[in-house]
Design the sequence.
């Protein structure tokens, strides 16, 4: 049994470094300058989070929300970098004129609703953690992130990326990093890091499906649909249905995600390819969810949630470890010979992950 009492928060962004690296090398300053600025900012924030964690400066949450409803606050950074910025909307306040503020507020609520109503979880930490977000962060900032304490959204450069509050699954993705932080606390490197990213894609997608009332068959299974600028040849940042097909653009290049272990990418960049190889467990979830049909959060999502929060998932778990636990969870929750057990087992087989 692994204990996860440390809750070591990490800095997690939705746009992978390899995407920004490519943009930063572009000849057109309108594309390269915002990417370089974003990479520098992300590096500073990542270093700050590491120091805060290492020296015990992260105090953790101090307030609690009512157990059955969220406690949201949205702030405006005014294109600066001081967090959280000026508070512009609190829980229960009427919508204002700033669409980014309203979308962030709604996305926080959609995330809270999925975890409470589908899994009985009270906010990100399971104990009523207030949900805070900041919009309009920095100038031409091409990312959104969870910093261990809150959500932060850039407005994009308008050339490649647009306002990051445009996708509810991006909001859900980043907040789900918080759920992982407070549960399995998966190490953010290599396969455990790819599992960390995959858990966020899975629950980000489920949050979107839940808010839209979509079945697994009706869902688009895209992560980040809506944040690419109109001129980009692509539909999203990632596709769980068909990893490697989310974009194919002259500027961004081609989506590098593999769908199976045959194409697993070995790299020292991006924390050992956490945003790339996450395509493999992402695809396994898609296969299991669509095989089972209906609402994906009810069966496949329930199994994944059971593993994430069950206490047996090691911080350094590999794909095989996670796969084995999902099969075990399917058996324990739905029975040994049921459709759920068969669907989960077959999904991992299809992506080439052995179940030990």
Sequence:
């Amino acid at each position: 049994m692994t204990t996860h009492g440390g809750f070591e928060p990490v800095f997690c962004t939705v746009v992978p470094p390899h995407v920004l690296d490519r943009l930063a090398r572009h000849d057109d300053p309108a594309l390269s300058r915002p990417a370089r600025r974003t990479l520098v900012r992300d590096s500073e924030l990542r270093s700050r989070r590491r120091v805060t964690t290492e020296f015990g400066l992260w105090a953790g949450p101090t307030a609690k929300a009512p157990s059955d409803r969220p406690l949201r606050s949205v702030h405006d950074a005014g294109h600066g970098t001081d967090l959280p910025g000026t508070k512009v909307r609190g829980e229960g306040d009427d919508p204002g004129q700033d669409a980014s503020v309203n979308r962030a507020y709604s996305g926080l609520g959609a995330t809270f609703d999925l975890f409470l109503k589908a899994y009985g979880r009270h906010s990100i930490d399971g104990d009523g953690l207030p949900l805070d977000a900041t919009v309009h962060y920095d100038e031409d900032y091409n990312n959104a992130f969870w910093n261990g304490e809150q959500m932060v959204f850039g407005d994009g450069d308008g050339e490649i990326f647009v306002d990051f509050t445009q996708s509810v699954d991006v909001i859900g993705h980043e907040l789900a990093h918080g759920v992982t932080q407070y549960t399995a606390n998966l190490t953010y490197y290599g396969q455990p890091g790819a599992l960390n990213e995959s858990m966020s894609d899975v629950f980000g997608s489920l949050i979107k499906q839940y808010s839209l009332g979509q079945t697994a068959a009706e869902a688009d299974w895209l992560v980040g649909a809506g944040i690419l600028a109109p001129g980009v040849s692509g539909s999203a940042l990632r596709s769980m249905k068909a990893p490697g097909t989310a974009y194919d653009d002259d500027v961004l290049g081609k989506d590098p995600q593999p769908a199976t272990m045959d194409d697993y990418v070995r790299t020292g960049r991006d924390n050992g390819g956490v945003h790339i190889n996450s395509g493999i467990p992402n695809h396994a979830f898609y296969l299991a969810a669509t095989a089972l049909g209906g609402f994906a959060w009810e069966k496949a999502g329930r199994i994944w949630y059971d593993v994430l929060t069950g206490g047996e998932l090691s911080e350094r778990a590999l794909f095989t470890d996670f796969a084995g636990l999902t099969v075990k969870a399917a058996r324990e929750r739905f029975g040994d010979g049921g459709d759920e057990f068969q669907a989960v087992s077959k999904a991992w087989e299809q992506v080439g992950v052995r179940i030990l």
Summary: The CA atoms of residues 142 and 156 lie 4 Å apart. The first strand starts at residue 12 and ends at 13. The first helix runs from residue 17 to 24.
